[in-house]
Write the structure tokens for this entry.
Amino acid sequence: MTVHDGASHALSWMGSIYGTLVVALGVDDFGQTGTRADLYHHFGLDAEHIAEASFSVLDMAG
């Protein structure tokens, strides 16, 4: 799993290094304004969303 406060596809290539699936979290649409915490929540880059995505990745691997 990758987390990037830029375009999610910027790090999606990393799975090809190891030949594995990558779940890439990032900013995939633009034009929103707000506090950093609000924007991270909106884009799923806050701690809660990262934890959920991490558990999803572990479920996929298991």
Remarks:
- Strands lie at 2-3, 24-25.
- The radius of gyration is 12 Å.
- The chain has a mean pLDDT of 90.
- The longest strand covers residues 2-3.
